[in-house]
From TrEMBL:
<keyword id="KW-0812">Transmembrane</keyword>
<keyword id="KW-1133">Transmembrane helix</keyword>
<protein>
    <submittedName>
        <fullName>(raccoon dog) hypothetical protein</fullName>
    </submittedName>
</protein>
<feature type="compositionally biased region" description="Basic residues">
    <location>
        <begin position="65"/>
        <end position="75"/>
    </location>
</feature>
<comment type="similarity">
    <text>Belongs to the UPF0239 family.</text>
</comment>
<dbReference type="GO" id="GO:0016020">
    <property type="term" value="C:membrane"/>
</dbReference>
<feature type="region of interest" description="Disordered">
    <location>
        <begin position="53"/>
        <end position="75"/>
    </location>
</feature>
<keyword id="KW-0472">Membrane</keyword>
<feature type="transmembrane region" description="Helical">
    <location>
        <begin position="21"/>
        <end position="42"/>
    </location>
</feature>
<dbReference type="Pfam" id="PF06783">
    <property type="entry name" value="UPF0239"/>
</dbReference>
<dbReference type="InterPro" id="IPR009621">
    <property type="entry name" value="UPF0239"/>
</dbReference>
């Protein structure tokens, strides 16, 4: 009766090339997603100076509001 039991593992077919490609692609995609999430959560080592990086708005407004030359009116 003990000789009737078969405890050998079932035969599993070898994965194909496309199955291996899919497995490694999913693995790399998961690593990329973790890196992206960590980049959002972990702050940069040096805080950026916001005032230096922004362009002054007053200079842009004054440049666009130059006085226009008046055309000579011909009567």
């Amino acid at each position: 009766m003990a000789s009737d039991l078969d405890f050998s593992p079932p035969e599993v077919p070898e994965p194909t090339f496309l199955e291996n490609l899919l497995q490694y692609g999913l693995f790399l995609g998961a690593i990329f997603q973790l890196i992206c999430v960590l980049a959002i959560i972990v702050p940069p080592s040096e805080p950026r100076n916001v005032e230096v990086t922004r362009k002054p708005k007053t200079a842009a407004l004054s440049a666009s509001k130059r006085p226009k030359k008046e055309a000579k009116k011909k009567w």
